[in-house]
Amino acid sequence: MHVREAFAIAIRSLRANRLRSALTTIGIIIGVSAVIILVGLGDGIKAGFNTQFGALANQIIVTKLNVAAPGSGLPKDLRDNDIEALTNPANAPDIASATPVINGSQLISYRQQQFLGALAGSTPDYLSILDRQIMVGQNFTASQAKSNARVVVLGPDVISSLFNGDAAAAIGKDVRIGRTNFKVVGVVTSNGQQDNAAIMPLGAARAFLVGGNDRITEIVVKAASVNQVDEAQRQVYSIMDERHNIKDPVARDYTATALQNLLEKATTFLSYLTVFTLAVAAMSLVVGGLGVANIMLVSVTERTREIGIRKAIGARRSAIMKQFLIESTMLAGIGGVIGIIVGVAVVVAGMIVVPRVAPNFGTPDVSIGAIIIAFVISLLIGLVAGGYPANRAAGLRPIEALRYQ
Questions:
Q1: What is the DSSP string of 98-125?
Q2: Which of 49, 283, 353, 393 sits a CA distance of 20 to 30 A from 132?
Q3: CB–CB of 205/153 below 8 Å?
Q4: What is the pLDDT of residues 124-163, one digit of tens each?
Q5: For residues 304 and 284, what is the distance between their CA atoms, to the nearest angstrom?
Q6: Any idea of the CA torsion for 304, 310, 311, 316, to the nearest 10 degrees?
Q7: Which of 119, 282, 298, 275 is nearest to 196 (CA)?
């Protein structure tokens, strides 16, 4: 039997049982589309994560421990002179900058509205170090920081609570933070991190809110490059151990966390999560394969007399097997094509909707590799699922097949 004839017979057989064929392909359609959708969403999440946090990969956060380490005294505070030591090129050639930060919480109010926000007192380069963008207005300047000016940059959550989300209306207004009025000079865009913050000059935070000493809550250390993070972290440990009289690393009264390590762990977790979800989607393909196998077995049973007639007039075993393999592969292939169309359509819709609804989520992306792999797997499932029914059909003896009722 020629391949063209086999395809023609297969198409007629599928048309003769349209509803059954359609129901059989549902499992394949769901499986293939699920693979494409999940890969697209996974790629979008990882791309959004890298875009949002990739700029932080060369940062090291130094913070004081809240409790004493075993075998040591009370933890020492981080102070301004720690910044000077960390930015000394002779001792820390791989450290590009060290930024002091005072953190806390303060009640922020405007007219009758109140919001409990996070306080961040720092230098003018704080926003650029955290890769935060100004949405409206501007950042406070170096001269304002030097003069302890009562100016503040607010996060979007504060704006939503105090100004009904109107960032432009907040610019130039005085908000009360603690017991002091601060002028709003800027509003940062949302990125899911410190959206509830009130960011102001370090000196102003000390003078009006937290006290005028030289203590700081944390130090944001920036390595000269991502490749120099490990060496910069070692230099941080060396300098801080010396300043805090630390002889044993176990007794350190501070932590120096490289964000690069946390980002790598998070990326690895996202990869494992994607693999897990794909495994769940693959179960749909397996179920679809069982459906194909079942329908082909039914088809063999229904067409037993037809098989007997073909073998009686000279059809070879290989021709019979080829016929049923082509039918099962076509059934799975049609399901794969429809699944691709559905999956791509959902991902494309997500590319339009997700950035509007959840801009920090990451835009889904159509993966050509996922499409090819899912379609190839659907064809392989058709071959495997049709293998046993095809072999059974090819093994029927003509005389027994002709007698079948």
A1: EEEEEEEEEEEEETTEEEEEEEEEE-TT
A2: 353
A3: no
A4: 999 988 888 899 999 999 999 999 999 999 999 999 999 9
A5: 30
A6: -120
A7: 119
